[in-house]
Specification:
The protein is an alpha+beta fold. The chain folds into 3 domains: 73 residues, no CATH class; 155 residues, no CATH class; 169 residues, Butyryl-CoA Dehydrogenase, subunit A, domain 3. Helices cover 57% and strands 13% of the residues. The protein is built from 14 helices and 14 strands. The chain has a 3-stranded antiparallel sheet. Strands 13-12-14 form a 3-stranded antiparallel sheet. Helix 8 packs antiparallel against helix 13 and helix 10 crosses helix 11. The radius of gyration is 24 Å and the shape is globular. The two termini are 45 Å apart. It is a multi-pass membrane protein. It is found in: Cell inner membrane. Pfam families: PqiA. InterPro entries: PqiA-like, PqiA-like_proteobact, PqiA-PqiB_transport. Its main location: membrane.
């Protein structure tokens, strides 16, 4: 088998064919047209990632099931745990909201580490991790330990005016698990896993004369023409369906965006939480909660909550709507500005879960029946549903559709 010093790669965003060095040696290969990362040379080995994942898996029970912070309410210590907050949400009649919190703060972090360890075991036993690698790529954006960490700080500011607050030693385990998980996000490279486990699928030589096909799931540039029994083109490496038309993708984006926008109406109009102190009940919407932090002088916390709970969700909807209209009407706008907007919604979407995590922590600390009562409002479910739906919408918005319109507009302009 001949190994070329340079291989031919197709950019996952703008579809430009780029000659990439076979070994990058701690460098990063970028697309010269759109600056999308084609390959990284500073990734960690599977063995190192597995060791880090094992460390995270050991830390997670301490971080999830044990108290992270406590309050002293009239001499009675009350502890806040990640699991406890979701459980009290569920037992208080908010099962679906509790599931959303549990999914992003407990289930996906554990699943993420288990997937890495499973790939390491599959390597030992000589197995092919096709579906494991696919799931690993798709689950990353739903692991939100870093968002929960910021929610801890917001909840601490929110509760300190009602009772004496202290942090527990288990918080160290949570911080370490968050940092190590973030490192895994940065250093693990599924594309290298595909190359390692499937060496028979060789990259194309730089002088390949024909137009190659590209699989967006495993990022494989190839020349084979694989058709299944239903007449659909398949990737030879990950077996993904390559014949999903842009029309279907756009329908998915429109459906989830419209549903998410509808959910945002009750999420902003209905109370998201209510607090009872000495017989006085105060219900807060998303916006009134920001006003409360401003009145308390916590301007930094007010800014964080406003950005995560109000500015980010509305800006996501506006940007996705703009990009959809740009595709439908083939607007001749700056493609690089459109790519920045698309990358923005991909990055910030998950941070809108901050408010639900704060609610879960408050539920864990302030139980019903105490002098200080706290309960979740009906807006919480609608807000969480809006976050999930807009994240799905942005994930289905394919950058290649925008670039194809850009190329079409450029060719019309030249003629």
């Amino acid at each position: 088998m001949k190994i070329h010093n340079v291989t031919l790669e197709r950019c996952a965003e703008c579809e430009t064919l780029v000659k990439v060095p076979h070994r990058l040696y701690y460098k990063t290969a970028l697309c010269p047209n759109c600056n999308h990362v084609l390959a990284k040379g500073d990734f960690w080995s599977l063995r190192r990632c597995a060791i880090i994942a094992l460390a995270v898996l050991i830390l997670l029970p301490l971080a999830i099931g044990y108290p992270l912070m406590s309050i002293d309410l009239l001499g009675m210590p009350i502890h806040a745990t990640i699991w406890g907050g979701a459980w009290k949400m569920a037992t208080s009649g908010y099962e679906f909201t509790a599931f959303m919190v549990l999914l992003c703060s407990v289930i996906t972090p554990i699943a993420f580490t288990l997937l890495i360890l499973t790939i390491a075991l599959q390597r030992i036993f000589g197995m092919r991790p096709r579906y494991t690698l696919i799931f690993l790529t798709k689950i990353k954006e739903w692991v939100m330990l870093d968002v929960y960490f910021v929610a801890l700080a917001v909840a601490a500011f929110k509760i300190k005016d009602y009772a004496h607050l202290s942090f527990n030693l288990n918080l160290i385990a949570f911080v370490l698990a968050t940092l190590l998980t973030t490192l895994l996000f940065i250093k693990i490279e599924p594309k290298q896993g595909w190359d390692f486990f499937y060496p028979e699928y060789r990259p194309l030589p730089p002088d390949y004369p024909h137009k190659p096909t590209f699989c967006g799931v495993c990022e494989y540039t190839f020349d084979e023409n694989i058709i299944d029994l239903k007449g659909r083109h398949r990737c030879p490496r990950c077996e993904s369906n390559l014949d999903i038309p842009d029309k279907i993708k756009l329908q998915r984006v429109w459906a989830t965006l419209i549903a998410g926008t509808i959910m945002m109406i009750p999420a902003n109009l209905l109370p998201i939480s209510s607090t009872e102190l000495a017989g006085n009940v105060s219900a807060d919407t998303l916006f009134s909660g920001v006003i409360t932090f401003i009145q308390l002088g916590s301007y930094a916390v007010a800014a964080i909550v406003f950005i995560a709970s109000i500015a980010v969700p509305f800006s996501k909807v506006a940007i996705i709507l703009y990009l959809l209209l740009a595709i439908h009407f083939k607007w001749k706008h700056s493609i690089h500005r459109q790519m920045k907007l698309l990358h923005y919604v991909h990055f910030v979407g998950r941070w809108s879960m901050l408010d639900l995590f704060v609610l879960a922590l408050m539920m864990s600390l302030l139980e019903r029946g105490q002098i200080l009562n706290f309960s979740v409002g009906n807006a919480a479910f609608f807000f969480g549903a809006a976050v999930f739906l807009t994240m799905i919408a942005s994930a289905n918005l394919d950058a290649k559709m925008l670039w194809r319109i850009h190329y079409s507009n450029e060719s019309e302009h030249k003629t």
